[in-house]
Automatic annotation (TrEMBL):
This is Carboxylesterase type B domain-containing protein. InterPro entries: AB_hydrolase_fold (IPR029058), CarbesteraseB (IPR002018), Carboxylesterase_B_AS (IPR019826). PANTHER family: CARBOXYLESTERASE TYPE B DOMAIN-CONTAINING PROTEIN, PROTEIN CBG05369. It comes from Parastrongyloides trichosuri (Possum-specific nematode worm). It holds the Pfam family COesterase. GO terms for molecular function: carboxylic ester hydrolase activity.
Amino acid sequence: MRIQRNGLIKGRISITNGTNKEGIVFQGIPYASPPLNELRFKKPILPKNWTGILETTNFKKTCMWNSKLTNRNHDPSTMSEDCLYLNVYTSKYCINQGGCPTILYLHGGWFILGSPNSLGEETLIENYANDNRKIVFVSINFRLGSLGYLSLNQRLKLSMNTNIALFDVLGGLEWIKREIHVFGGNKDNVALMGHSAGSTAGIYIYTSQRSLGLIHKAIFISGPIVHPYLENANENYSRRLSIISGCSNCSTNWDDKNDVEKVLNCLRAIEVTKLLNYQRAVDEYGFRIFGPSSDIGEESFMIEPWNKLIKKKAKIPILVGGTKYEIVEGLKAINKFPNGETTIILDKVKIFCESYLSLYQLKNKSEGIRLCIEEYSNDVNKTIDIGDDFLFYKANYNLCNEAIDNDSDVYLYKFTYNKLNDSIKGFQFSNTTPFHSNDLVYLLGEKKNIFSNNDYIMQKKFSKIIVNFLYRGNPSSRGIKFEKYTKERNNYFVVDLNKDNSFIGMKNNYHNEGITFWTKTLKEKLGNFNEFTNDTEWIKNSPKYFEITTGRMIKMFVYPDSYYTCTNKHSELKRIETMNDSPNKIIYGFIRGIKSESNSKSGEAYAYLGIPYGSTRELRFKEPKSVPKWNGIRNATGNGTNCLTKSAILTRPINFEMYSEECLSLSIYTTKRCLQTSSCPVIVFIYNDGLNFKNATAVRERFTLGNFAKEGHNIVFVILNFRSGIFGNLNLNKNLPNLSMNTNVQLFDITLGLQWINDEIINFGGNKDNLSLMGYFTGSRITNMLRYSKRVEGLISKLILFVDSVDGLDMIDNSETISRNIAITTGCASGNTSWDSINEMESVLECMRNINEFELLSIQVNLEINGVNMNTPTIDYGESSFFQYNKNETFYRKVYIPILVEGTFFQDELTDENLDDLFVCQFFILYDIRDSEALLLLPHNSNGTQHDGKIFNLLDIPKKQCIEKLKETDYASIHQLNNFNYKPTVDYYQGFTNKVEGIYVVEKLNDNTERFDIILEELFSRFLLNFINYGTLNINEGAATNINVKINNLMIISDSYINESKFDSIVKNISLQVYENILESKDSLFLSPIEHIHNNTNILIFINNTIGKSNISSDNMRFSSLLTIISFIHFFIFT
């Protein structure tokens, strides 16, 4: 045969076994010139003419691919960069008579692998290319992976094209228009048909105006349309490829055409096998080719944005369908046990939800994730469908409806035939059969094995649907009643057989539940939203998403040494991950951390220690300044100097060589997963043992890594150093706004640290939009006060308050009195000093700034011994103040974010004598003695004094009896600590019974831990992780809800949780009943109006009331726990 443009070709006759069908086969016809050298990364050009007869009787080599994301055998000897060939299957009838309908088929393979060579020649002839069916079937090779979808900057007019693979297919369609008549095909009746990634590519081609007049029908099988609005898809991947290849470095300007052209020339010069080895490495780091992108511009493939193109699609018939189950990603989120029971893994469901929703511009992403988890975590069958619903069924639904809007005839089907048995090579039957691509054995002969009679019947009838559609644009014929798709019915044809071997036929409501959630429910709950046009959010989630879906461990991206050979330092922030000693680049310069493996349970973690975030040089008593940039690589491999601290309470010796006024540093602990994704939640920890002293290095790395920065938990944990005591809270006169000092210097320090973290945490794997500020002991008081300043608005998204969560706004403000006492003691002021005189105040300040810092510390300690303690930060106001408004305005301007409050309520050993002298949080203190029904409430007024000197007993138990019960108990308890049985586990502060639970989160625990300690540690970390991730404690795998006093719902957390997976209905009923009774009781002290809760702030209360050894009944324990939580809720209403 002579191809009109190029020359003679020779094919062969093929006769099928058994059915004796005859077809004519031409394999390896060039439709474009080899895309080599300067043609790499360019759209194809026409093939050159040849002389003589070109042998086209066997397949040519497939297009190059190399990926570890598949188990398929990778054999470079079967591949070539010279691969732009197609294959034609026709018949004598078509060649002699002409005018036969034509199919161009696009194979699948994740856009990175595959070829048409896997199709079954006999099946293609039996189904299409014979004298009865009279179809011309064409399959095509097109470039894959980086060779087919490289995109360095599609906004520049470069010597390359984006969407090269689509241009290849377009070249094939243009070849068909020119040449298919030679093979008996009708150039005016061409159907584009694709499966999986080939279907997705086909949908982009069908949507682009470039295909107008080239295709007249379309068949899309199992094609996921995930990100059609992404205009920069593949840029991140492509640039990483260029970095690993040594073709770009940290000075490459991706917006500079000359820079990018240099990268292109370098990539073209690399031998193709080596280039694909680099591509494989990028895959192993958890980054993958997106496939087609919505590139824009005259030289692009799509030309216009997707939202415009879907309204301009060709008005041609389309046939859309797929299998009952597709890739069933949801199976990865299900644990199946040998006894047949299954459980749903919420963490994996969450990753799926985060990944899918990262494509949408949601106003409230966390709520969207919560809704998604709720939708797909209550039923195993729903969980299985999560990926198929989003990736496939929703895509089919949208595709059908968009085509109807363009007045096209649309037909939708679902292949549910599951009697596959031995028909497919390597097939194993499961509950999710038929699976993605199982239908191809009947349509295309892919992986065909041994057919039964039923299999042959299915092949004949199923392929008849395709043939009917090719001839008439309608799949129907005698015995096949295939109705058009309508929006109202969402109707589809079931490709499956009745007992009489007839088709089951039409049904309504195609995957209705899942489609409704993704297309309607989310918008009803969250409001309308648009898709992102860039891939930033998706990239953050892709490594952990691909690790789950492929079952392969994702390696951390390692930047080669060549990356750091920069010739030009740019000032903009560059996101660089780290591995071992590879430095990070932050806005201030390069920084190198250390790899840490604190213990076996933590796994690999990475620490960046002592990073300066602010400078206090010559700024004593003033707000800090940002640190200057540095040259070279800064080592962040050891803790920075501690801020000056000393207290009379602190008995352990201090090495003052480790302390300095220039101390504003932070330490970051992260994981390789976080570094890959830059999407991990962040905890910023405010540690404070007292208002005069603290030491961030007291937090043991074991617990930082064990509870937060470890694989599986993946929390980026940040510890801040900030000034405290006299250096952090000096306040000589807050009403003098023009003094050369700031009140609340401590809070200014922390706020600058939060700003630094928001700017830089992405470089250490953190998501600044999910940043929890966690305070411990007096650090929780400081943390709580921060939310009353608009200076932190937008810097934090949640609060976690441990132990001492008193609201500082209602504390007695005596910071001025204390500060003035210090000034007088130093000799810088006297009893005659005029504290309202700016000049005199400046003289006092100058004097105090000239005193040696350690001398100031000694004065602070001496005053403390005499009962003068530095207080909390003060509510200052004025332009240069921290809070800026008066007390009342400050209260109503506070930042409304979710809050988790946790505390131990045994503050000291309780006796009758010391009962009235106990320090109280603010309004009341609880003593839950865990025995019988005894519960004491000691309410206090806001000034900290006992309310009327009375003891209020909710359960009508006399005071004496309650105290006696307290004295009699001697069992080991985390909260019942009368005999201090917890001492063996704590290194110091043995008298601080009100902060014992801290040893299970951040404190120093020694080696005398028991199994119970380990259980509690895991319990604490789990609750914290759930709150950080979901904004809820998430008890019983998502069963718990946030506390909301408006609907009187409660959550009980007790020791029974350690031993039981669920609470019984009786306890739940009791909780609601008792809570209502307390609210309605006339004798109740809790009369604070509910409307004091402003703006629907989300509050969670977690009372640590867990017992170590006790024989107390669980019902009493739960009841007692309930009252504890109820009371603390009301405490928070007051505050």
